[in-house]
Amino acid sequence: HPSLKNTLTRRYKDTQMKRFCKAQAIQRRLEEIEVTFRELEQQGIKVEKSLRDEGGTSADQKTQWMNQLLYLVQKKNSLMSEESDLMIAVQELKLEEQQWQLDQKLRNYLNKEESLKTPEDHAAEQEILAQLLEVVDKRNLLIHIQEEKRLSEL
């Protein structure tokens, strides 16, 4: 049915555009994190140098530097955790796209009249189904990883 096909095509294009925008936003954030990492490392190096060259520094100043160092480490750990979440999100987007493409291929075979299918068609259908199950398993694994990560952070 042409209008159904048009609706599905439009829906696919919308979904694809959303995935693309999401991927771009993730990429931008990953770049920001990279810049922030470098800044934190530079600050950390300065604080460590101050601690080493402490000559006649007061105990209060040393404590302040230690606290600053601790803060930088916590900030870096927090960014690493966010980066890890974003990498998982990228994988998720890739798998969503793969799943959609495989769904489309499978639908083409399933819409074909059974009596017209060649042995090659049947084999291709089985192969696509196997790939689809593999993608679904990978997506489930990502969900499991995210859940484990979330629980370990609590």
From TrEMBL:
UniProt subcellular location: Membrane
Keyword Amino-acid biosynthesis among record annotations: no
Pfam families, sorted: bMERB_dom
Transmembrane segments annotated in the record for this chain: none
Gene Ontology MF terms: monooxygenase activity
Sections of the chain in a coiled coil: none
PROSITE patterns: BMERB
Name of the protein described by the UniProt record: MICA1 monooxygenase
Species annotation: Baryphthengus martii (Rufous motmot)
Name of the gene: Mical1
